[in-house]
């Protein structure tokens, strides 16, 4: 239903596609596939997008985030270690990231101006 509403309201200027992921327990799209700017997406290497070629053919840059630092024994509470992908884009060149996740900070520092915040 929602996708049909999007198609009706965005057409004819935009095409809306359904995408799926190799994820047996989908919960949080922002820790699976996160659009971080025009033509730029973070794609979780553990849960690849089945339609990634659609993005590549359209000229998108696909980035795989670095492995998160969160320990494997962390309880996670209905989440995943990939919460490091859950970032807040403040604009095309500004982003807030978890202060404890240095690897993803370094990724964003190579792309945009980043600001770290403590989530735990």
TrEMBL record:
InterPro entries: AmidinoTrfase. One of its GO terms (molecular function) is glycine amidinotransferase activity. Pathway: Amine and polyamine biosynthesis; creatine biosynthesis; creatine from L-arginine and glycine: step 1/2. The keyword Mitochondrion applies. Its main location: mitochondrion. GO terms for cellular component: mitochondrial inner membrane; mitochondrial intermembrane space. GO terms for biological process: creatine biosynthetic process. It catalyses: L-arginine + glycine = guanidinoacetate + L-ornithine. Keywords: Membrane, Mitochondrion, Mitochondrion inner membrane, Transferase. Gene3D superfamilies: L-arginine/glycine Amidinotransferase, Chain A. It is found in: Mitochondrion inner membrane. Belongs to the amidinotransferase family. Catalyzes the biosynthesis of guanidinoacetate, the immediate precursor of creatine. Creatine plays a vital role in energy metabolism in muscle tissues. May play a role in embryonic and central nervous system development. This is Glycine amidinotransferase. The gene is GATM.
């Amino acid at each position: 239903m929602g996708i049909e509403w999007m198609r009706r309201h965005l057409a004819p200027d935009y095409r809306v596609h359904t995408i799926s992921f190799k994820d047996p327990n989908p919960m949080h799209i922002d820790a699976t596939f996160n659009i971080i700017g025009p033509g730029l997406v973070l794609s979780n290497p553990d849960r690849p997008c089945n339609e990634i070629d659609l993005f590549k053919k359209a000229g998108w840059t696909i980035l795989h985030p670095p492995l998160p630092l969160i320990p494997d024994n962390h309880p996670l509470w209905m989440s995943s270690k990939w919460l490091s992908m859950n970032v807040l884009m403040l604009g095309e060149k500004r982003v807030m990231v978890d202060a404890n996740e240095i690897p993803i900070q370094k990724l964003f520092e190579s792309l945009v101006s980043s600001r770290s915040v403590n989530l735990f």
